[in-house]
TrEMBL record:
Residues 305-581 form the DNA methylase adenine-specific domain. Pfam families: HSDR_N_2 (PF13588), N6_Mtase (PF02384). The keyword DNA-binding applies. Residues 50-147 form the Type I restriction enzyme R protein N-terminal domain. The keyword Methyltransferase applies. One of its GO terms (molecular function) is DNA binding. GO terms for biological process: DNA restriction-modification system; methylation. This is Type I restriction-modification system methyltransferase subunit. Keywords: DNA-binding, Methyltransferase, Restriction system, Transferase. The lineage of its organism: Bacteria, Bacillati, Bacillota, Clostridia, Eubacteriales.
Length: 906
């Protein structure tokens, strides 16, 4: 070896590849002229000591090069039967408890003279013999001597010299045996979706470590190991052992070193997923545990739909609202992609790609279509690869999620190279050429489920990048807007003329009134830039499993073709020149095109509120491996196809409810131009539901708003009853002292109230403006005559004497009117608002005489009375039984109930 007696420096050791690897893996740390070893014990030493430089190299070499586990290595080990100050520099043990010494290492500063070297070797032998270690290594970096100590006399120094440090056995001298050989009969194998899900879930659980790592960090580390595994599956030649496995007699250090190298090679081969310098940040033991879980399966050989099913369940259960991410269930992605009829000629982008669920579905459906349309063709696989590599794009702002998305696509046999990570889709400059500029319109399809609930403010570099909010039409005149508004506009900008999008959007965009919400402006932008082809309403529980309570719909939109844009503009301009206002001009432009819109409402979507798969699916019908069934009759997809074939003669469908209406009729149907399907589908049904012999009247014709304002503070000592309404239609008194309620309902406590209070009268109809859609409506009974409510509980007195209050109370609890109330609500959160104008526009049906009304509801009233009597009998029986046990008579035991229902309506 070269004599480095006078040239070895601390900097040389710090720069040594083995030491750098040991530092990267957390075994060694340099700080403030100190070195810390994280081995079986954590110990710190002076880095100015030249002997420490040699020990540092030796430890790194033992772990990285020779595969000895760090948890079996100790420094400064006390040596029995020697002077108290004598310690062995390094001892490698055979067991995790460090009870059985295997190799003793004596280190000295580089370039020792003969005397110093002899002294060091003698010190090695004395320590090794005292510790009963079979092997010893003298190491001064420039020179090293390896001895077999156990098999020779204690004084032997020549015959037992076996060479330099290179002669030290790897992994205790035990040659690993490997089970899985590439291309052999004992190789890794594909698995079914359930087995794959179990494996990837177990692997993630090991990394997550019961919450020691946050979910996204755990995902990131999980992705690195899967990336390494794919590298092994794709690059290990036939006849060679798989690298992503744990051999018999193999140490954790050796396995981890090989996996680190696999990951490094994968990053070099494909630098598009992880940034330069990223490493696996897991302990050797964790790496080995994960490898054991995944080593016998082949992900690249598993059917892509099996992978999809496994990952859907995995991501769907892990991703939650607290991560700011709501995983889109695969049924929704599959339906949207099917409705857009994407094929291999399309350029597709998901502007908020998340974990890549929509893009995966695009790949699967297009590949199925290629298999069908190009069966037997020699270029079939080439078509699939070209589509995946060149026509599927995504953008994801969160860098970790972007990497997860890329890995997800990679595991599904590619399509990952066109993911723009760590950047918002609202930015104006991108790394991928096809995205620049985003307003160029280079995509024929846009898919996705944009996040909503965030606010984009002017100057927000995280969300806007180098862009400005003023560049978006939907933000005109505003310094901030909801994120979903500008993302929708950006999605339309991505589209080429005639391009189509399918996006999940909050219902607020479709129905919120008032310019303050900005939603009417978004609706105007939609109809002024393209054709609303279809809107499908989703059930309230669509995202409940992910922790979201939002009411959503799916918007299918087509950007204007050039001739449509010209026709729309000409009609609009002509109307304006004729003196029409903006609203009248917009209607004139819509009349010039007057296209039909498909509207549908799904009650069942292939999974339950808890995310459990269900056979009931109004959206579509599928076969094995996610292939869509040829027969889609009776599904919304089938109805939409029927509508597309003959849009002008489409007659609609019931259960699932589907209809078609002209954009002009839809636009004119409501003063706020609401577009939500549930509203228009109900209004269509409303015109057809009138039982024989009944009459139909608008609410405004039979009821009148009562606004009897009360000032309780004017009578400070007078008790007051404040009422609220449950979802079952029960009126009850609000509890004093609960939440923000005063300790007593006395007039004096209303002095500082900012609310305006109204008095309700017996027989009045009262509902919760926020929770009417949940069933919070009732007729005021006698015991609450004169009770108070805030403006959030509109009060109506019955002015049509033909209408019996008890009948009306029962009528409003029927399924039909519960659906009606849900149809007229606006917004998308768990607390949606009902406008009084929409309530008054509802039509109710009733027999024209009270006697008929009483007869109709007689059974219901009798059943209610029997229910009350039964409840009372049960209560009395329980009290008698309780008295038998504790002798406390009829004393009631009050259990506190935490029920805040409607208490936030003030």
């Amino acid at each position: 070896m070269t004599n480095l007696k006078h040239s070895l420096t601390a900097q040389q050791i710090e720069a040594h590849p083995l030491v750098r690897e040991a530092v990267a893996r957390g075994f060694i740390k340099f700080s403030n002229n100190r070195i810390t070893y994280h081995l079986n014990q954590k110990k710190e030493y002076n880095w100015f000591d030249p002997e420490e430089w040699v020990r540092c190299h030796a430890i790194a070499w033992l772990i990285i090069e020779k595969g000895y586990p760090a948890n079996r290595i100790r420094t400064e080990v006390a040596v029995p039967r020697r002077v108290p100050e004598d310690h062995a520099d390094i001892v490698v043990f055979e067991d995790d408890r460090c009870r059985i010494p295997y190799l003793v290492v004596e280190t000295k500063a580089a370039g020792q003279g003969p005397a110093g070297r002899r002294q060091g070797i003698e010190q090695l032998f004395g320590n090794a013999n005292s510790l009963r270690a079979p092997l010893g290594l003298y190491d001064e970096y420039t020179e090293s001597f390896f001895y077999d100590i156990a098999n020779y006399p204690p004084t032997e120094r020549n015959d037992n010299l076996k060479g330099s440090r290179d002669a030290v056995p790897d992994q205790y001298g035990r040659v690993p045996k490997y089970t899985y050989i590439a291309g052999s009969t004992v190789d890794i194998r594909p698995v079914d979706p359930g087995s794959l899900e179990t494996r990837i879930r177990r692997a993630h659980s090991i990394i997550w470590a019961g919450g020691k790592r946050d979910p996204l960090t755990a995902f990131d580390e999980w992705s690195k190991l899967l990336f390494a595994k794919v590298q092994d599956e794709r690059t290990t030649p036939n006849g060679e052992p798989r690298k992503f496995q744990v051999g018999t007699n193999e140490t954790s250090a050796a396995v981890a070193s090989r996996i680190h190298k696999l990951f490094e090679d994968a990053c070099q081969a494909d630098p598009t997923i992880f940034p330069e310098g990223v490493r696996i940040e897991l302990s050797d033991r964790k790496i080995v545990e994960v490898v054991r879980v995944l080593q016998d399966i082949s992900i690249t050989a598993t059917h892509v739909d099996s992978i999809g099913k496994a990952f859907e369940s995995f991501f769907g259960s892990i991703f939650r609202g607290e991560l700011g991410q709501y995983f889109t269930m695969r049924q929704l992605a599959r339906f949207i992609v099917a409705m857009l009829d994407i094929d291999h000629r399309d350029y597709v982008i998901d502007p908020t790609a998340g974990s890549g669920g929509f893009l995966l579905e695009v790949l699967l459906q297009v590949w199925h279509k290629i298999d069908k349309d190009f069966a037997g063709r020699s270029d079939l696989e080439r078509l699939k690869i070209d589509f995946a590599l060149h026509k599927v794009y995504g953008i994801e702002i969160h860098p970790v999620l972007a990497r997860i998305c890329k890995i997800n696509l990679l595991l599904h046999h590619d399509g990952h190279t066109n993911i723009e990570g760590d950047r918002s889709c609202l930015d104006s400059i991108f790394n991928l050429p096809r995205l620049n500029p985003p307003t160029a319109g280079r995509f024929t399809r846009v898919v996705g489920n944009p996040p909503f609930g965030d606010t984009v403010k002017e100057g927000d570099e995280d969300l806007l990048g180098q862009n400005s909010l003023s560049n978006f039409h939907v933000a005109e005149g505003r310094t901030q807007v909801p994120s979903e508004h500008v993302i929708l506009e950006r999605a339309i900008q991505f589209l080429a003329d005639g391009g189509r999008l399918g996006l999940i959007i909050p219902d607020g965009i479709l129905n919120n009134p008032g310019d303050h919400s900005n939603c009417p402006q978004v609706r105007r932008f939609l109809v002024m830039n393209g054709v609303i082809e279809a809107i499908v309403s989703l059930p309230d529980y669509a995202f409940r499993k992910s922790g979201a309570q939002n009411k959503t719909s799916i918007l299918f939109f087509r950007k204007f073709e050039p001739h449509e844009r010209v026709a729309f503009k000409n009609a609009y301009d002509a109307a304006r020149e004729a003196g029409k206002n903006e609203e009248e001009a917009l209607i004139a432009a819509l009349e010039a095109l007057n296209y039909p819109v498909f509207l549908a409402e799904a009650n069942y979507i292939g999974y339950t509120a808890t995310g459990v798969p269900s056979e009931r699916n109004d959206l579509y019908r599928s076969c094995e491996y996610g292939i869509l069934n040829e027969d889609q009759s009776g599904t919304i997809l089938g109805e939409y196809r029927r509508f597309r074939s003959k849009p002008d003669s489409y007659d609609g469908h019931r259960l699932p409810d589907c209809m078609a209406a002209s954009i002009v009729d839809i636009w004119r149907a409501h003063e706020s131009h609401r577009l939500d399907p549930k509203y228009h589908l109900f209004k269509r049904e409303e015109r057809t539901i009138t039982p024989k012999g009944w009459i139909r009247r608008r609410v405004a014709e039979v009821m009148r708003r009562r606004e009897e304002i009360v000032r309780p503070q004017d009578s400070p000592y007078e008790p007051v009853v404040v009422m609220t309404i449950s979802q079952t239609g029960e009126i009850r008194a609000r509890e004093a002292g609960k939440g923000n309620n005063p300790p007593e309902w006395l007039g004096m406590y209303f002095e500082d109230s900012s609310s305006v209070w109204y008095r309700a009268r017996k027989g009045d109809v009262v509902f919760s403006a926020i929770d009417l859609w949940k069933g919070c409506i009732a007729v005021v009974p006698e015991e609450f005559d004169g009770a108070l409510v805030t403006k959030e509980f509109p009060i109506y007195e019955i002015i049509d004497e033909r209408l019996d209050p008890e009948f009306l109370s029962t009528l409003l609890r029927t399924r039909y009117y519960q659906r009606a109330f849900r149809a007229i609500t606006t917004g998308h959160s768990n607390r949606r608002r009902t406008q009084t104008s929409d309530f008054e526009a509802l039509e109710i049906c009733f027999p024209p005489d009270r006697r008929s009304q009483t007869e109709i509801i007689a059974d219901i009233l009798r059943a209610r009375q029997l229910q009350r009597e039964a409840n009372n009998l049960l209560r009395q029986a329980m009290l008698r039984f309780s008295d038998l046990i504790d002798g406390r008579g009829d004393m009631e035991y009050i259990v506190p109930v935490d029920d805040d229902e409607n208490d936030e309506n003030e």
